[in-house]
Design a protein that fits this description.
Layout lengths: L2 H36 L9 E4 L5 E4 L8 E5 L4 E13 L2 E7 L6 E3 L3 E3 L11 H4 L12
Antiparallel strand pairs: 1-4, 1-7, 2-3, 4-5, 5-6
């Protein structure tokens, strides 16, 4: 094989390789352009908590241990969390969660493990909390 033939064969291989590389790059650009639209997060899940108290946890009318008990949640029960306030500390934790379980009740955060970020009640629209719930005047922060 002469030098000219060798260079011609090599040139065809390089051209074929460059074509394949161009095709791969184009395909990669197409796929990467599609990825953000496909990877866009869906609607955010509402926060929830799991009761960690071994004996369960009382649901209260207001965020205070002095408030009347309106219900009871068993150990490992899952509860929707609407928002939180800082008020009377329970076991060194001053956060209380407003639950969304049919009726508006409060649970001490000391005994709830939440799945993510729960907003403060003042950041949540007033109408979504509970129109009849006067807990805001009893809460601090």
């Amino acid at each position: 094989m002469s030098t000219t033939e060798f260079l011609a064969v090599r040139g065809r291989k390089l051209a074929a390789g460059a074509g394949a590389l161009t095709t791969a790059l184009a395909l990669g650009a197409t796929l990467s352009a599609m990825t953000p639209a496909q990877a866009a997060p869906g609607p955010t899940a509402k926060p929830y908590g799991v009761i960690t108290a071994k004996m369960g946890l009382s649901e209260r009318q207001y965020p205070s241990t002095d408030a009347s008990v309106k219900g009871y949640l068993r150990h490992r029960a899952q509860v929707n969390l609407v928002c939180k306030v800082r008020t009377q500390p329970v076991g060194g934790n001053s956060v209380w969660y407003l639950t969304g379980e049919g009726r508006a009740t409060w649970v001490a955060a000391k005994y709830v493990t939440n799945n993510g970020s729960v907003k403060y009640c003042k950041e949540v629209q007033r109408g979504r909390i509970a129109p009849h719930n006067n807990a805001a005047k009893h809460a601090v922060g």
